[in-house]
Write a structure and sequence with these properties.
Layout (H helix, E strand, L loop, with lengths): L2 E3 L8 E10 L5 E2 L3 E2 L8 E10 L9 E7 L3 E10 L14 E3 L14 E6 L8 E11 L1
Antiparallel strand pairs: 1-2, 2-10, 3-9, 4-9, 5-8, 5-10, 6-7, 6-9
């Protein structure tokens, strides 16, 4: 996982955290937790985006959700949704990534150490992708 953030006082503190090579061919299974690393002076965050990219094949069947607790419990960040918008695996081409719809994240901040992506429906063949969560840090 990679973490990128800025904690310059004159810059909005944001972060980007990626789970690479997530296996989306396993039904109703939690994927590895995406750890949130806080910059100095910040204790909370709000989710600003969830993106799926770098798929190993066209994702025609797989679904993905993101939650605050294991087993698809806790607060829903992204409701289990189809990844079928990813139809290309080639870089720099249309339909090689998607932005997932957030579930009311404009009104909630968190003090969690990580978020849990969960594969709802398996692809039906070996398939991986990268899942990136972007956040805005709050003091």
């Amino acid at each position: 996982m990679a973490a990128l953030f800025s904690n310059d006082p004159g810059v909005l503190a944001t972060g980007s955290f990626t789970l690479r090579g997530a296996n989306v061919n396993q039904a109703t299974t939690d994927l590895p937790t995406i750890t949130i690393l806080y910059p100095t002076g910040f204790t909370r965050f709000r989710v600003t985006g969830v993106f799926v990219s770098h798929a190993s094949l066209s994702l025609t069947t797989a679904t993905l959700g993101v939650f605050t607790a294991a087993g698809g419990t806790g607060t829903t960040i992204v409701t289990d949704a189809a990844l079928s918008g990813i139809t290309s695996t080639a870089e720099s081409t249309a339909a090689n990534s998607i932005s997932m719809t957030l579930a009311s994240q404009t009104t909630t901040s968190y003090t969690l150490s990580g978020l849990i992506p969960r594969c709802g429906t398996a692809q039906g063949a070996a398939a991986t992708c990268d899942i990136t969560i972007t956040v805005q840090f709050l003091p």
